[in-house]
Amino acid sequence: MKIVIDLTNKCNLKCKHCGNANDNSFVNIETDFINILKNIPYTITKVDLLGGEPLLYSKLDDLLTYLEEISVEVSLISNGQFSDEMAKYLCKKMIRNISISIDGMREQNDQVRGKGSYDKAIKFLESLLEYKTNEKMDIGVNIVVNRLNCESIKLLIEKVLSQGVDYVRINRILEEGRACNSDLLIDDVQYLTVIEQICSEYCSNDLMEKIVFDFETPFLAYYLNIKYDMNYMIKKDYCDAAQHSIYINSIGEIYPCRSYQHKINLTNFINDISLCATKLIMNSEKEENDEYCISCFLLQYCFRCPLNKKKNPGMCKLLETKLLNYFDGFRKHRVKFLDNTFIVATDSELYLMDPSKEKNYRVKNGNAKLLEYIDGERTFEEISKNSNIDYYTLTDFLLDLSNRGGCEIYELKENYS
């Protein structure tokens, strides 16, 4: 089981976009997390240490020592406002992943995180990279996309990758805590523009493997992978709350996740966690029957948090428009199959089998002679018409298959070899 812990709500910065901060509910308490972890009746495989600022937790050394003793994979996120000695200390511990938060080049970062915070974070990052001796330790940078850094994110990515970090993680501001109603928030169009610029810049570069995105919908990962032909470098994450992970806040209260306010008691842990998982599944099933979503073109790619009742029709419409416009650009393209086993025909229906097994296409009244139309001579549009298969379904399947090496797509017959 994975455990996410806010070690403390103390912090040495006051970032304008902090989702954890609530300045009216500060509690100065040092929780004994070791005792809590010892009483969780599941094998703990991973622990994420967050805050506040986790390096301000006074019992950090004892906790890291205990986690090392029970062979747990540890990840830690810090603002990097610490000394060279702290960097040396961390590099001696068995920490799998250390992330330093930096939100733009010096001017943009310091407007968000405070004057001088950029130079301190960069220096701390350099110290970590210098003292790192454990090959299994990854050191990276977290960047939150905001109104101030849209134009400078690529510069920061280039800088830290050139310094030798193992990854860069791109996040969107969560409208929680101090970030609520912040003037740093950007709209969906601005956010997607930044993400697409990053993908366009690095899609043909090996460095793309070092860029990680936290997306609100798995569909966005699929769209970018297909559009920029990245062989599914961008991974899709799904919720595992109350099934494979739990969250512990700074005063030791246990929940399935930050959003699910059903407290789990250690004395009744197994029953409570089972109840929470059941409720999450029931909520997910109810979402599938939501009239807003049931007929949505994007439903097969989508995963919305069953606890988040806010709908974002703007984002959904934007993604749908982007995808369909991209698909429309292939109407005159042609295709050559390299392996016909991805099409299965019965007497009455046709199945386009996605090699990833993430989704398959069951085409009602499909034409069993589809293969006769895919011979390198006809366009996508002609194949769709002749085989009686929806154009967008066909294009989705062919682009997916091409990205996995199952077919070749080209524009003109004379350019095909």
Report on this model:
The chain has 417 residues and is α/β, with parallel strands linked by helices. The chain is 36% helix and 15% strand. It is built from 14 helices and 14 strands. It has helices at 33-38, 60-69, 84-92, 106-113, 117-131, 153-163, 188-202, 218-227, 269-288, 291-294, 313-328, 370-373, 380-387, 391-403; strands at 2-6, 46-50, 73-78, 97-101, 138-145, 167-172, 211-213, 245-248, 254-255, 334-337, 343-345, 350-352, 361-363, 407-410. The strands form 3 sheets. It has a 9-stranded mixed β-sheet with strand order 7-6-5-4-3-2-1-8-9, with helices on one face. It has a 3-stranded antiparallel β-sheet with strand order 11-12-13, with no helix packed on it. It has a two-stranded antiparallel ribbon with strand order 10-14. Strand 3 (73-78), helix 3 (84-92) and strand 4 form a beta-alpha-beta unit. The radius of gyration is 24 Å and the shape is globular. The protein starts with a strand and ends in a 7-residue tail after the last strand. The mean pLDDT is 85.
Overall strand count:
14
Helix content: 25-40%
Topology as a string of helices (H) and strands (E): EHEHEHEHHEHEHEHEEHHHEEEEHHHE
End-to-end CA span = 51 Å
The coarse overall form would be globular
Strand percentage, roughly? 5-15%
| Major β-sheet profile | 9 strands, mixed
Class by SSE composition: alpha/beta
How many helical elements?
A: 14
If you average the pLDDT, what whole number results? Answer: 85
Main sheet strand line-up: 7-6-5-4-3-2-1-8-9
Question: Could you name the ranges where pLDDT drops below 50 across 5 or more consecutive residues?
Answer: none
Rg over CA atoms: 24 Å
